[in-house]
Amino acid sequence: MLLLGGILLAIFVVPWPWGIATVLGGGLLDIAESLVLLRWSRCRRAVTGAEALVGSTGVVATRHQVRVAGELWRTKSADELVPGDEVKILAVDGMTLTVKREGPPGGGPSA
């Protein structure tokens, strides 16, 4: 994008000797930006699928099911879960979520 801007400046605005410097500067900035973004994208870990649910919250639908992101999942928990409780997902094991109740028991989300 900076290269395109440099070319347009060189053609329509900047006088002859400075036009080349403008195009080269825009090209170098474009390359530097691409390298920085490439390095940043490789440092980030992709989070997709069921692993993306860890840390999010859901609402208990039945004693052994919780609704997270519009989907029903089987659950296991050390807490006694009541429909309406808000829970936090701690881990994913296949199709079963390990959850922990957030807030008071049996009352849904706290006020």
Can you give a write-up of this model?
The mean pLDDT is 87. This protein has 2 domains: 2-43; 49-102, OB fold (Dihydrolipoamide Acetyltransferase, E2P) (Beta Barrel), CATH 2.40.50.140. It is 35% helix and 28% strand. The protein has a 5-stranded mixed beta barrel. The protein is built from 2 helices and 5 strands. It is α+β, with helices and mostly antiparallel strands. The radius of gyration is 26 Å and the shape is rod-shaped. The relative contact order is 0.12. It has helices at residues 2-12, 16-43, and strands at residues 57-62, 65-68, 71-76, 86-93, 96-102.
Helical stretch count? Answer: 2
* SS-based class: alpha+beta
CATH first level of the largest domain: which class? Mainly Beta
The first-to-last residue Cα distance is 49 Å
CATH homologous superfamily annotation of the largest domain? Nucleic acid-binding proteins
DSSP strand count: 5
- H-E string: HHEEEEE
CATH architectural name of the largest domain: Beta Barrel
Looking across the biggest beta sheet, what order are the strands in? 1-2-3-5-4
Broad shape: rod-shaped
Biggest β-sheet, characterized?
A: 5 strands, mixed, barrel
The radius of gyration computed from the alpha-carbon positions, rounded to a whole number of angstroms, is: 26 Å
CATH topology of the largest domain: OB fold (Dihydrolipoamide Acetyltransferase, E2P)
Q: Which whole number gives the mean pLDDT?
A: 87
**Could you say how many structural domains there are in total?**
2
What amount of the residues lies in strands?
25-35%
